[in-house]
Automatic annotation (TrEMBL):
GO terms for cellular component: plasma membrane. Keywords: Membrane, Transmembrane, Transmembrane helix, Transport. It is a multi-pass membrane protein. Residues 1-97 form the Major facilitator superfamily (MFS) profile domain. The chain crosses the membrane at residues 50-69, 76-96. InterPro entries: MFS, MFS_dom, MFS_trans_sf. Gene3D superfamilies: MFS general substrate transporter like domains (1.20.1250.20). It is found in: Cell membrane. This is Major facilitator superfamily (MFS) profile domain-containing protein. The keyword Membrane applies. One of its GO terms (molecular function) is transmembrane transporter activity.
């Protein structure tokens, strides 16, 4: 997903090639930082509960992208999606042996 986001921002919002790279870097950083939080929450609450909530929120935020037209709204929604991906990734590792 991260590899396509810079192309999407460049084509959809006519940004120069540097701006999408900055945006995608920050989004990837947000996902990476939220991963340990997902693991910590999975230890406290339970991985299956975290995954249920995160998948529900991912569904809603992904579908909501269909109606966003402004660059800032898309950036905010993608930030939420990347944070949720990080939480999901951190919680998912509790299921691995």
């Amino acid at each position: 997903m991260s590899s396509y986001m810079s192309i999407y921002f460049h084509n959809q919002f006519a940004l120069n090639p540097i701006e999408p790279a900055d945006i995608v870097s920050l989004l990837a950083l947000a996902g990476s930082v939220s991963r340990p939080v997902g693991g910590w929450l999975a230890d406290r609450i339970g991985a299956s509960r975290i995954l249920q909530v995160v998948f529900g929120l991912l569904f809603i935020s992904t579908i909501s992208m269909l109606w966003f037209q402004s660059r800032r709204a898309v950036e905010a929604d993608l930030l939420l999606i990347m944070i949720l991906f990080g939480l999901d990734n951190g919680a998912l590792f509790q299921f691995l042996p």
